[in-house]
């Protein structure tokens, strides 16, 4: 049985890209300066979406310029206009995304709100992660490493849980997830090389 | 696997048994990962709920996830130690290792950028306070 909360939040958030998380965080937790919440807020995907939009935009702009002036002017105009247009476009799309997110979150049911709050607020304890990494390296690590590693670990958990939910749905079971779903999810992710494994060496020529 | 988890849970109920085997560090011995005290049980439960599981996930599933996470972090750390500056783990190494995975890469970039901005904001805030 698919969970509508999951479908709405995960899929739509993943596809549309997230809004500027700082914006949301400032609204909700102004006293919290530490980035404890980890949410999927992707400036990267939105900038990745941009190049496609940008190409058509700048082509249109270039076409407009050529219509207006002589041959000498448009190229310099185009150069000046391009970076500004890029920033404007990025701002506009960011604001659009922020608005879309706000509309989405405002229409959540209580259960969805709970889940969304857990999604954003849950995080690995920095101290434990730091201790774990330092026990492996034997030397101290910087704070950024701990931040990066905690973030990646959370994404990792998300990938497994999502895959396990897919498996669960496919097998006609209901959440809560059972170990057999988790194991099948791991098996699938391994075949897609999303789970690192340096224990098994491929001997090419035996 | 689940039987092993249940067995290990039973062992933990008997303090005498554990005192003999436990070397104090919660340890890694031949029995495997499960011997170590559970580091992330609470946080993992919240995370699983956030990512779509039930509000009360099964303990065995949480255990499996914890083992996976610890293995993941261990592998990443070992790989990071072997590239770049040997024997040390640096952010650049992690970013390099994660470059092929778009989600993780984007997430790390965002986190580091946000951290920089927060540090700058905090510094500006402190300086403003100090000035006045």
Helix and strand layout, with pairings?
The complex is a heterodimer of chains A (206) and B (132).
Chain A: H1 4-16, H2 21-28, H3 43-68, H4 72-106, H5 110-121, H6 126-137, H7 143-170, H8 179-191
Chain B: H1 2-13, H2 15-21, H3 41-51, H4 59-82, H5 91-97, H6 102-131
Helix pairs in contact in B: 3-4
Quick synopsis:
Chain A has about 210 residues and is mainly α.
Structure description:
The complex is a heterodimer of chains A (about 210) and B (about 130). Chain A is an all-alpha fold and about 210 residues long. In chain A, about 70% of the residues lie in helices and about 0% in strands. Chain A is extended. With about 130 residues, chain B is mainly alpha-helical. Helix content of chain B is about 70%, strand content about 0%. Chain B contains six helices and no strands. Chain B has helices spanning about 1-15, 15-20, 40-50, 60-80, 90-95, 100-130. Chain B is extended and about 55 Å long. Mean pLDDT of chain B is about 80; it is low at about 10-30. The chains are: A mainly alpha (about 210), B mainly alpha (about 130). Chains A and B meet through helix 1, helix 3, helix 5, helix 6 and helix 7 of A and helix 3, helix 4, helix 5 and helix 6 of B.
């Amino acid at each position: 049985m698919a969970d509508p909360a999951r479908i709405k939040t995960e899929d739509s958030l993943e596809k549309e890209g997230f809004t500027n998380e700082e914006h949301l965080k400032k609204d909700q937790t102004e006293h919290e300066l530490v980035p404890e919440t980890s949410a999927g807020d992707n400036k990267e995907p939105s900038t990745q979406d941009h190049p496609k939009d940008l190409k058509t935009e700048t082509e249109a702009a270039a076409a407009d310029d050529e219509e207006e002036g002589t041959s000498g002017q448009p190229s310099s105009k185009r150069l000046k206009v391009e970076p500004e247009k890029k920033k404007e476009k990025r701002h506009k799309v960011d604001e659009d995304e922020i608005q879309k997110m706000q509309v989405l979150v405002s229409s959540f049911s209580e259960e969805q709100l709970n889940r969304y709050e857990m999604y954003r607020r849950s995080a690995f304890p920095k101290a434990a992660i730091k201790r774990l990494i330092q026990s492996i390296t034997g030397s101290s690590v910087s704070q950024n490493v701990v931040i990066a590693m905690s973030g990646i670990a959370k994404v990792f958990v998300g990938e497994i849980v999502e895959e396990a939910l897919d498996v669960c749905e496919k097998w006609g079971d209901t959440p809560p997830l059972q170990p057999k779903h988790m194991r099948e999810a791991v098996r699938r992710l391994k075949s897609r090389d999303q789970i690192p494994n340096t224990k098994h060496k491929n001997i090419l020529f035996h | 696997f689940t039987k092993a988890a249940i067995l290990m849970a039973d062992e933990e109920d008997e303090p005498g048994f554990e005192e003999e085997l436990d070397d104090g560090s919660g340890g890694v011995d031949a029995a495997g990962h499960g011997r170590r005290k559970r580091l992330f049980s609470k946080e993992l439960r919240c995370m699983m709920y956030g990512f779509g599981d039930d509000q009360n996930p099964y303990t065995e599933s949480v255990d499996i996830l914890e083992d996976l996470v610890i293995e993941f972090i261990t592998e990443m750390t070992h790989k990071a130690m072997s590239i770049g500056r040997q024997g040390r783990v640096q952010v650049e190494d992690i970013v390099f290792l994660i470059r092929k995975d778009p989600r993780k890469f984007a997430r790390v970039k965002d986190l580091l950028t946000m951290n920089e901005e927060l540090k700058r904001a905090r510094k500006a805030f402190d300086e403003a306070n100090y000035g006045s």
